């Protein structure tokens, strides 16, 4: 008797989730997606696995907009697995998994991951290394504490992509931040941690970490720290840092009670054995990192995630010996203005540039990046060695032509 085709409900199917749709095609799965009508129209004819769709009609940036359509589609499909994509999809996905008794990170891990103050509380309880911090209703409530510890970082509790993250280094800058953000609502204020930024991507099954990858990050620096480069498979020649990252990741998975899924842990390290946790998410990492991990380690992360969602234990490498050096590069405008031209033609046809695309079109208002949405373009790089990866990234930045419309610099509002 032929085996019945299995069904996956995918909550969110953005550009960086297309790897799940390709993997579903390869595995012979049937997929229903919860997405905006516009995004669904962009993928409907491209992936044979797509079989059903439920629209999101509210504000797609809000967690609450995804729950009702996810429940509606689940009732219609009776899926064998449910998988979420980005940050606003985590709670809706986990609620459906919980109600259907399907594998997922668990309600506790999902709830903690969506609230940075809850993360700080759980990490403190578990004795994990993290910055000194205060959770306040109004930014001004942290004034005395912050002024004694400058520089500090101000961040919202549930945003992503560096939105609202700001380093404050002086009393006058603190006063300015309070004037701008005191009515914003609850915020987290943390002591600033020096050191390079990294992330760990982990596949977890039944609370057991199956695979980890170490990613090195480069950012725009203070005050906003927008990520502009990622190198997956980092650390093959840095065993102390690699061991530190693995141990930290396993401690975080235990602390948040994560069951099954993918974890994305960000940390800083002034020294290789002195990590400080920034935050953790139980969803697909952004900035094409899942694709980078696949390229660096020679296996399909998206397929592995679908197998986890189906209750299987995927075959994964040990993560200790990457096969390639893979990176994602993002461009940021040096000044504010109106974009007249973004010429990426020098990138076309380069064999080590796997994919690339603009993010903003001519006519868009641009500024030096304050969050991920300000970045102009991206490229996926696939090289033989980390040294070649770094050199190629510098070459690509130097060959891009960014032209702004004539006239004085413009102020682009947040």
From TrEMBL:
**InterPro entries the record matches:** ATP-dep_AA_Ligase, ATP-grasp, LAL_C2
Q: Which PROSITE patterns match?
A: ATP_GRASP (PS50975)
The entry's keywords = ATP-binding, Ligase, Nucleotide-binding
**Does the record's keyword annotation contain ATP-binding?**
yes
| Recorded superkingdom | Bacteria
The entry's protein name is ATP-grasp domain-containing protein
GO molecular function, one example?
A: metal ion binding
On whether Transmembrane helix is a keyword of this UniProt record, the answer is no
């Amino acid at each position: 008797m032929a085996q019945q085709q299995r069904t996956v409900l995918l909550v969110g199917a953005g550009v960086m989730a297309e790897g799940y749709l390709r993997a579903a095609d390869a595995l012979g799965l049937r997929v229903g997606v919860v997405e905006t009508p516009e995004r669904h129209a962009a993928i409907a004819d491209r992936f044979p696995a797509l079989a059903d769709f439920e629209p999101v009609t509210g504000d797609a940036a809000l967690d609450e907009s995804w729950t009702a359509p996810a429940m509606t589609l689940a009732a219609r499909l009776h899926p064998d697995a449910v998988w979420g994509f980005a940050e606003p999809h985590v709670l809706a996905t986990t609620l459906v998994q919980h109600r259907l008794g399907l594998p997922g990170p668990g309600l506790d891990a999902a709830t903690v991951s969506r609230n940075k103050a809850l993360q700080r509380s759980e990490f403190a309880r578990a004795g994990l290394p993290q910055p000194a911090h205060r959770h306040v209703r109004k930014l001004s409530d942290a004034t005395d504490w912050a002024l004694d510890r400058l520089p500090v970082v101000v961040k919202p509790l549930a945003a992503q992509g560096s939105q609202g993250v700001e380093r404050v280094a002086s009393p006058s800058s603190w006063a300015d931040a309070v004037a701008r953000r005191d009515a914003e609502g609850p915020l987290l204020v943390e002591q600033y941690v020096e050191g390079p930024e990294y992330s760990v991507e982990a596949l977890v099954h039944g609370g057991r970490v199956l695979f980890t990858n170490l990613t090195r990050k480069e950012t725009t620096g203070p005050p906003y720290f927008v990520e502009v480069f990622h190198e997956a498979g980092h650390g093959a020649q840095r065993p102390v840092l690699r061991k530190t990252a693995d141990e930290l990741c396993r401690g975080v998975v235990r602390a948040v009670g994560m069951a099954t899924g993918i974890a994305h842990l960000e940390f800083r390290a002034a020294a290789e054995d002195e990590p400080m946790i920034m935050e953790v998410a139980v969803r697909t990492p952004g900035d094409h990192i899942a694709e980078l991990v696949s390229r660096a380690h020679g296996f399909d992360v998206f397929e592995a995630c679908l197998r986890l969602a189906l209750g299987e234990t995927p075959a994964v490498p040990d993560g200790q010996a990457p096969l390639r050096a893979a990176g994602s590069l993002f461009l940021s405008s040096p000044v504010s203005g109106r974009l007249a031209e973004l010429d990426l033609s020098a990138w076309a046809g380069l064999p080590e540039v796997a994919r690339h695309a603009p993010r903003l079109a001519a006519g868009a208002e641009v500024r030096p990046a304050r969050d991920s949405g300000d970045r102009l373009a991206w490229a996926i790089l696939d090289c033989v060695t980390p040294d070649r990866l770094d050199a190629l990234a510098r070459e690509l930045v130097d060959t891009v032509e960014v032209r702004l419309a004539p006239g004085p610099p413009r102020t682009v509002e947040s």
